[in-house]
Amino acid sequence: MILYSKWKAFHNDNPQVFWAFYKYAREAAEVKKSFGARMVWERIRWHSTIETDSKDGFKLNNNHICYYARFLAVVDPARFDGFFTTREGSQTGPDEELQMLRDWQNKQLLPWSQA
């Protein structure tokens, strides 16, 4: 739950990271049936000059990758459900994490105006 809370705070402070992840994942989904979330993350690092407001001192913390991958499955299930392979979380199971993400999305805490 701690990692999820840190990701949620990071996401709230840095919505541009989600939009970059979403953009690059969509590009990958056009040519691949599955893909590595870490590859998307590293593409953001390599090709972008994203300014983030990170409380943990990392510009793009690797701990957030799994949450962005799972979140895309919630946001756009037709395209991303099963696209990324995810492992069970060490603090919660994937079903619990997906439910937290769905609940969060349903409360409209996302900046959808950029979609």
What's the layout of helices and strands?
Elements: H1 2-13, H2 15-31, H3 37-47, H4 65-75, H5 77-80, H6 94-106
Helix pairs in contact: 1-2, 2-3, 4-6
What does this structure look like?
This protein starts with a helix and ends in a 9-residue tail after the last helix. It is globular, with a radius of gyration of 13 Å. The protein has one domain. Helix 1 crosses helix 2. With 115 residues, the chain is mostly helical. The longest helix has 17 residues, at 15-31. It is built from six helices and no strands. It has helices at residues 2-13, 15-31, 37-47, 65-75, 77-80, 94-106.
Keywords summarizing the entry:
single chain, 59% helix, 115 residues, disordered C terminus, mainly alpha
Query: If you average the pLDDT, what whole number results?
Result: 80
- Beta-strand share of residues: under 5%
Number of strands: 0
The gross shape turns out to be: globular
Number of domains: 1
Radius of gyration: 13 Å
What oligomeric arrangement do these chains adopt? single chain
Q: What structural class is derived from the secondary structure elements?
A: mainly alpha
Distance between the termini: 28 Å
Catalogue the unreliable spans.
111-115
Estimate the helix proportion, in percent: 55-70%
* Main beta-sheet annotation: none
Order of helices and strands: HHHHHH
Number of helices: 6
